[in-house]
User: Which sequence fits this backbone?
């Protein structure tokens, strides 16, 4: 039996763009099909298909439908407003070095992009005595979305590593979650502050859930600390590498698949 062809990514249009902090760009996109998505899926990932500079809309749509595949990157739904058919996507401003950052910097109202997904949210239920959240700038959207979705009586700690003090955002975390903004000025150097601070936490005395994402070396160290040393069940520990120093996304995803074998 032949495998049915994959559905082409759906088209959305840029509505607005703002720099929410010094190094974070928020792009709002709209489309009628967004009205069919569920509310409350902030933090879910999706595949963003990116047009080339100066590419016509018709040429981009043709690539989405027939190939060759445009540049594609994985991003997070930061906010969704199904009633308006809108999603917000936050991009770390890396200048024009990568296709996604370059697109976010140049896009204007009316520009097209492609969307495939969404995937699942990372913490579907909240039942822990304490929560541990950690992220670098690349994973700040999923960390912030998770903090904002937590019960208002949740307790825990969050370590959020940002490039400059001006990159601190307003995140509606529960009052019982201590949010620490840590300055990590060189993204090309391995993150260590979150790893050291989590390793120094007291031993866990009850159920713990985590939402931890960022650069691969940070993830490897925190997976060892939280799952292997402290014994948090894998089902309660979302710990995911979003990128690796020196690799583009396709290379990083291939490395992750090889490690999982």
Assistant:
């Amino acid at each position: 039996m032949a495998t049915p062809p994959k559905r082409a990514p759906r088209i959305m249009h840029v509505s607005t763009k703002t720099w929410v902090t010094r190094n974070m760009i928020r792009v709002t996109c709209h489309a009628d099909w967004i009205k069919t998505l569920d509310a409350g899926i902030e933090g879910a990932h999706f595949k963003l298909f990116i047009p080339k500079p100066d590419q016509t809309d018709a040429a981009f749509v043709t690539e989405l439908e027939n190939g060759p595949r445009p540049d594609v990157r994985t991003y997070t739904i930061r906010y969704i407003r199904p009633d308006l058919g809108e999603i917000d996507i936050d991009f770390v401003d890396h200048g024009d070095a990568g296709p996604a950052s370059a697109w976010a910097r140049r896009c204007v109202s009316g520009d097209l992009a492609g969307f495939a997904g969404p995937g699942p949210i990372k913490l579907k239920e909240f039942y822990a005595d304490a929560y541990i959240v950690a992220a670098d700038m690349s994973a700040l959207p999923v960390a912030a979305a998770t903090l904002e979705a937590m019960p208002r009586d949740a307790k825990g700690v969050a370590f959020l590593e940002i490039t400059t003090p001006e990159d601190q955002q307003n995140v509606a975390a529960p009052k019982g979650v201590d949010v620490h903004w840590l300055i990590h000025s060189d993204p090309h150097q391995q993150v260590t502050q979150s790893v050291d601070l989590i390793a120094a936490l007291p031993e866990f005395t009850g159920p713990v859930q985590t939402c931890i994402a960022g650069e691969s070396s940070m993830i490897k160290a925190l997976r060892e600390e939280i799952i292997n040393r402290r014994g948090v069940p894998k089902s309660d520990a979302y710990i995911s590498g979003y990128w690796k120093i020196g690799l583009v996304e396709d290379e990083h995803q291939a490395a992750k698949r090889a490690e999982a074998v």
Summary: The domain at 130-260 is CATH 3.40.50.80 (Rossmann fold).
